Amino acid sequence: MESTCSNAFIKVAMWVMYKLLPCFIQSIVVIPSQMEMLKQASDTGLPLIMLPLHRSHLDYIMVDFQMIANDIRGPLIAAGDNLRMPFFGWLLKNLGAFYIKRRIDPVTGRKDLLYRATLQTYIMENLRAGHNMECFIEGGRTRTGKPCMPKSGILSVIVDAYMDGTIEDAFLVPVAINYERLVDGNFVREQLGQPKKMETFTSTIQAMWSTLRGRYGIVKIDFCQPFSLREMVKAFQAQQNKLASKSSEGYLKYTMSNSSLYGTDVIVEEHRQMVDSIARHIVYDSSTSMPIMSTNVVAFLLLNKFRDGCTLDKLVEAFDLIRQELEFSEKNVAFCGESVDIIKHALDILGPGLVMQQRQEITEAVEGNQSYKSNVVIAIRPISILPNVIELSYYSNTMLLYYVMDSIVVTALYAELQSQINDPVAIAENNITVLQNSLIERALKLCDILRYEFIFCRPCQELRDVVLETIQNISHKGIITMKEEVYLEDELWSKRYAQNFDDSSDEEYSREQKIQKIEYKLSLRPEHSSRMEFLHTMLRPLIDTYTCSAFNLKKLVDRSLSERELVQEVLNEIKTKVDGGIISYGESLCVDPIKNSFRLFEKWNVLMCHMQENVKIFYLKEDYDTDAAIENIYDTIAAFKWVRNMD
Fold it and tell me: What pLDDT is recorded for position 495?
């Protein structure tokens, strides 16, 4: 397990990487002020706990390279034992890696107490000695481009080290790393249901050779503000005490990871919830700081706006609009210069295998005479075969994080207004309205459905307030406008008179009543309708997947299936519907959202699960009417008008 970290070995390795990285990486971008901030935190003598989101095997090399290049002691890195292979396993150990089992308990139902105690003691003793540490809060690499739900095992040991006084404090450092093109290739095989290929010495040599011959553009690393573990623990303890005496409506509760180091038999539930809240806070901070690369924006536009192709001029125009939005919102944009040059660079990095470019000559007649003029345009179109669409969606999903709340509110708006939108009289009178409270409730329900896909806010925030803020932002953009209440003169006088008798004890009740009465009117202007549809379709592939998963639960009637078998059944069903044109988006054919939908149905107590030799076996809840259960799930999802043409 232990690391055999050597300073001399690290210096040699860093020199080699300094020579090799320019062979396939154009540049590594790091903000100097962030490195200065890390150095100041390191100078305190407290351990730095580096917590990157995990995209590539290159992540830990990039983090170490930057820390050592800036005279900050390199961390000990928690690595999966799948990387303990000949030569490379020894190499990583000398660079600071210590190995942990990917499955802590080899036999279901029997905890490997000796291994757990050994791992906990090893981590705690390294923290006591003042070593910096690095672990990936998501566990493994993201296969979809979206952050995964956190796994809190090692973080729980670090929190426990503080709680029992092993360390007086530590600095937790969320880290976001993004690549213009992923060095690891793609995860299309795994998303289509094929098993992961385990790393071997031969495959590693082949991957390194292929990498050195490739072009992967820019890498940007964002080191977030380090925060004190002690202060974080105190803040969440205070929040737990507050919630204990107050209803937690507006907060989403989540099930803990099955692969966490600790279980409910080891630590109390309050401690587990606090560790999970800290983990979710870290993932949220990292995801909101994720650098946006040029390839992310281009892939996002090609999949959500120009799936059927467009000219370069139109792509530049759409790119400029998104660029303005990102810069206005002060998002972490990792490109600069003229938009047309940025787009050409992104298309070059993505390559002709994903996006096709063609020069086309357009001939137009000149008014008033018989002459003609020709213009040469560049037509750009994504190559929309299934593997390509899934790979492009990986890059696009980084952008989805920045629009997800807008998309949720707009989708909830569609659901609330579906009867009015189809009413010619309401459209003719330009009087399509929705109550704010109804819109909030619908959006909260949608957040509940997608709880395993996104972290919508920090655990210390109330989700209802975030939804309300999003509604107000959409209102400011003109998609909906608040209806002005019209009062008679006597009513206005009585309202002014009543304000003199305001009771502050009723302030919260008054606020709630005011929210319930607020009404919004939908704008029917073409530009606003176009924007609504753009936001509405972003989440459509996900809900297509969830809906198909719900329908396929009927296959569990009078039988049970392993998770792998059920996933394959759903994949086959989605593929049939994609081929038949019933489902419009090939990226719906992904394993990760299917597995997340199963977690949702388990949470709803419709789908049950037990383990046999580390294999999940699913079955329907015995006392549940099957047809009613499926109908309830489908109604919950289909109420949002995600799937228009499904039987």
Answer: 55
Shared domain check, 255 and 403? no
In a domain, 287, yes or no: no
CA end-to-end span of the chain, whole Å? 54
Which of 232, 248, 278 represents a domain boundary (last residue)? Answer: 278
Determine the Cα–Cα distance for residues 540 and 585; give it in Å rounded to an integer: 8
Q: Are residues 478 and 499 in the same domain?
A: yes
CATH of the domain at 163: 3.40.1130
Q: Is the dihedral of CA 263, 264, 266, 271 positive or negative?
A: positive
How far apart are the C-alpha atoms of 620 and 6, rounded to whole Å?
54
DSSP string, 22-87: HHH-SEEEE-HHHHHHHHHHHTTTPPEEEEE----TTHHHHHHHHHHHTT-PPPEEEEEGGG--TT
Among 491, 507, 535, residue at a domain's last position: 535
Tell whether 420 and 374 lie within a shared domain.
no
Give the structural domain span for 408.
399-535
pLDDT tens sequence across 305-363: 999 999 999 999 999 999 999 999 889 999 999 999 999 999 999 999 999 998 887 76
Lowest mean pLDDT segment, chosen from 110-119, 186-195, 380-389, 524-533 = 110-119
Give the total number of structural domains in the chain. 4
The closest alpha carbon to 403, from 512, 329, 485, belongs to: 329
Between 318 and 460, residue with greater pLDDT: 318
Helix (H, G, I), strand (E, B) or coil at 195: coil
Residue 645 lies in a domain: no
Q: Do 76 and 4 touch, CB atoms closer than 8 A? A: no
What does the pLDDT look like over 556-593, one tens digit per residue?
Answer: 888 899 999 999 999 999 999 999 888 889 999 999 99
* 453 is a domain residue: yes
Q: Is 578 or 242 the better-scoring residue by pLDDT?
A: 578
Q: Which residue shows structure tokens 């150990």?
A: 93
Q: Are residues 515 and 559 in the same domain?
A: no
Residue 113 CB-density burial (10 A; 0-12 exposed, 13-18 middle, 19+ buried) = exposed
